[in-house]
Specification:
Blueprint (H helix, E strand, L loop, with lengths): L5 H31 L6 H29 L9 H38 L9 H20 L2 H4 E6 L2 E6 L9 H42 L4 H40 L10 H12 L1 H12 L1 H42 L1
Antiparallel strand pairs: 1-2
Helix pairs in contact: 1-2, 1-9, 1-10, 2-3, 2-4, 2-9, 3-4, 3-6, 3-7, 6-7, 7-8, 7-9, 9-10
């Protein structure tokens, strides 16, 4: 990246800023829609809101870091000393924890939809809020346990009076081998196994929906059953789009990781820099794509977004009216006081 011209760096920074802006605004609106609509406060929507929180955190931590790398050089860190070391460890930790939380949230949504569609008659006395108090902390605790080693392996080093945030397993372990093993374990546990489970669950859901359609064609069905099947199909389509978007966004960055560690010997060769940049942009654009999928494919989220905007406009009008009223009252008070004086 050191050979990039100023114009090239400007284009890359523009794309990073665009991804950052869309992801933060889109996911914030998604959370706002769920929070303001009590009918949408279900287990599935709580998990979607949890994924939106993780996506915001991922974007806010990762994208400014890559903007710094683009402006200066890879692994460059702006802070030194103890503060810089703590920041290096904690930001690296939260960046990958929040990414894992997004994946585990998708898996939890798939499990919840599998239970709701395949076993619709199985009643439970547990309220959505109570079940979420168990599920949501678990989704965060598992990634935290996987990535807690980051507080040991990430360090700040100084080279030529410049500070860098690097990963180093020494002196206890070898410099390269543990990183490669940890990369394989982490990618397998956080991407490949969850994706395989998600695909299996959605295949089972699709098969069940097709069977329901066949049974419906054979005989009359109640309006409630038809409405439930229609809603289930919408949810499945939405989550399927989210899963496909994640798979598409994660493939290039995983290919780069495999090539970097096992083919290129920890050095990006000349000519592959732009491919690495494109892989990062595609991966970090996933948090900005997710809210767009919900607002485009799900009419409940669209209507909730419209109501949210209307509420915001209404509140602004009330505030403007109150401010004008207070100004008139102040003016009247001044007029009366000047009259008596």
């Amino acid at each position: 990246f050191l050979g990039d011209t100023t114009a090239t760096k400007g284009v890359k920074i523009f794309f990073y800023c665009l991804v950052l802006l869309i992801a933060v605004i889109g996911n914030s609106l998604l959370i706002g829609v769920i929070k303001r609509n009590k009918k949408m406060q279900t287990v599935t929507n709580y998990l979607i809101a949890n994924m939106a929180v993780a996506d915001i955190l991922t974007t806010l931590v990762a994208v400014p870091r890559h903007i710094t790398y683009t402006m200066l050089e890879p692994e460059r860190w702006l802070f030194g000393g103890i503060f810089g070391s703590i920041l290096c460890k904690s930001l690296s930790f939260f960046q990958d924890v929040s990414t894992a939380v997004s994946i585990f949230s998708i898996l939890a949504i798939a499990i919840d939809r599998y239970k709701g569609i395949v076993f619709p008659l199985r009643e439970t006395n547990i309220k959505p809020t109570k079940s979420c108090k168990i599920i949501l902390p678990l989704i965060w605790i598992v990634p935290v346990g996987i990535h807690v080693v980051y507080f040991y392996v990430f360090h700040t080093v100084t080279r030529d009076k410049k500070v860098y945030c690097v990963i180093d397993w020494g002196p206890t372990f070898d410099a390269k081998k543990p990183v490669e093993i940890y990369f394989i374990v982490m990618v397998t546990c956080e991407i490949y196994i969850p994706l395989c489970l998600i695909i299996w669950l959605y295949c089972a859901i699709i098969v069940n929906l097709k069977r329901s359609a066949i049974r419906r064609n054979r005989g009359p069905a109640s309006c409630r059953t038809l409405r439930r099947i229609k809603e289930d199909r919408k949810v499945v389509n939405n989550i399927a789009a989210i899963v496909i978007a994640f798979m598409v966004s994660s493939i290039p960055i995983n290919v780069i990781g495999i090539l970097f560690y096992f083919v290129w010997d920890w050095k990006i060769p000349c000519g592959a820099e732009n491919f690495a940049f494109a892989a990062h942009i595609i991966f970090y654009s996933n948090p900005s794509v997710n809210p767009c999928i919900y607002f485009v494919l799900n009419d409940k989220y669209r209507h909730g977004l419209v109501r949210l905007f209307k509420t915001m406009v209404f509140i602004k009008k009330i505030e403007n009216t109150d401010s004008k009223t207070s100004e008139r009252e102040t003016l009247n008070q001044k007029t009366w006081s000047s009259t008596f004086v």
